[in-house]
Fold this sequence. Notes:
Layout: H1 12-24, H2 29-58, H3 60-67
Amino acid sequence: xxxxxxxxxxxxxxxxxxxxxxxxxxxxxxxxxxxxxxxxxxxxxxxxxxxxxxxxxxxxxxxxxxxxxxxxxxxxxxxxxxxxxxxxxxxx
Length: 92
């Protein structure tokens, strides 16, 4: 993967901490910061998945009512079984 240079300005205390932590881990400051960013990005991804999971659990009964057990869409919002509405058949 190609590398891009990124210049970051931090106060001396932060710079010293980054140097110390990188040295303790036996890596360059660049690598240390790259790992921190990757870890942080992973946390965001995990946070999103957890929030999505919580949402699905909270609204599970609504989804079950709308789409049934098989997920085929048998509820009134699809227009099937009511004789009204436009349905979603053409939108899939």
